[in-house]
């Protein structure tokens, strides 16, 4: 515990909540502690990831332990991998169980960028990673689509859920990325209905943001239970 505190201090990681998992020190530890598969480590090496960023050090073990979290870390600090890594590790490989992870982004551009990063990280593994586009929703057999990880704006997911074209009852991970922007853009209602449609009781929700205004923190506390709060640096820098 002393060691955890020192490590957090060194990396400017501030946490609150109960039973918080120790921060991860390295990719080597990701393998020894959490049995990270070699395909993922190889992809990371290819992408030039040598060291974990502070948000990754703390958020990855939290989500791998099945705990919910809301996290605030500066732009460019590697938040995408902080949630994609535990999702890829926990889902293990493709399945026919339907959608098991949903990542909501405030804009289509950000959703497309996240989908590209996800595909790069998942290389050498046969995941079905889908970016929700207009064409995809319109396609005739959309409801039979094989998909493990769905990446979308909240608007598009909600529309598809309403038309009963999307079943989210088996979703194990729900991520709200750039949640401060989700708020600014007035997307809270859409987010809320997606949260409700993800009815699996053992779902792990998380929220990532560059700033943590009170509105975002309130949302986090209403939709998550026993969540751990992680802040890198200062709250609204
Ligand atoms: P954020 O969402 O916090 O703004 P991103 O997740 O988009 O940041 O990451 C910014 C850039 O840093 C991306 O190009 C990403 O691939 C890269 N990156 C993320 N994690 C690492 C790491 N551990 N080592 C090296 N580069 C990284
Ligand atoms: Mg981001």
Automatic annotation (TrEMBL):
Coiled coil: none
Ranges where the Helicase ATP-binding domain occurs: 19-237, 60-230
Family: Belongs to the DEAD box helicase family. DDX52/ROK1 subfamily.
Protein name: RNA helicase
Organism encoding this protein: Lithospermum erythrorhizon (Purple gromwell)
Organism classification: Eukaryota, Viridiplantae, Streptophyta, Embryophyta, Tracheophyta
Residues of the full protein shown: 104 to 340 of 528
């Amino acid at each position: 515990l002393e060691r955890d505190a020192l490590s957090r201090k060194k990396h400017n990681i501030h946490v609150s909540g109960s039973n918080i998992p120790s921060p991860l020190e390295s990719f080597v530890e990701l393998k020894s502690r959490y049995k990270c598969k070699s395909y993922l480590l190889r992809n990371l090496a290819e992408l030039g990831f040598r060291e974990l960023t502070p948000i990754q050090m703390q958020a990855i073990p939290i989500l791998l332990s099945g705990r919910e979290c809301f996290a605030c870390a500066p732009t460019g600090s590697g938040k995408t991998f902080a949630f994609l890594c535990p999702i890829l590790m926990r889902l293990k490989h493709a399945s026919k169980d339907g959608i098991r992870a949903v990542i909501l982004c405030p804009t289509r551009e950000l959703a497309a960028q996240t989908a590209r990063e996800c595909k790069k990280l998942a290389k050498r593994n046969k995941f079905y990673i889908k970016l929700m586009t207009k064409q995809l929703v319109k396609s005739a057999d959309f409801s039979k689509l094989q998909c493990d990880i769905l990446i979308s704006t909240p608007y598009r997911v909600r529309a598809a859920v309403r038309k009963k074209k999307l079943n989210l009852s088996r979703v194990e991970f729900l991520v709200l990325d750039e949640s401060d922007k989700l708020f600014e853009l007035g997307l809270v209602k859409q987010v809320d209905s997606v949260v409700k449609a993800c009815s699996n009781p053992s779902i792990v929700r998380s929220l990532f943001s560059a700033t943590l205004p009170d509105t975002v923190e309130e949302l986090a506390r209403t939709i998550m239970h026993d969540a751990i709060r992680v802040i890198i640096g200062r709250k609204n820098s």
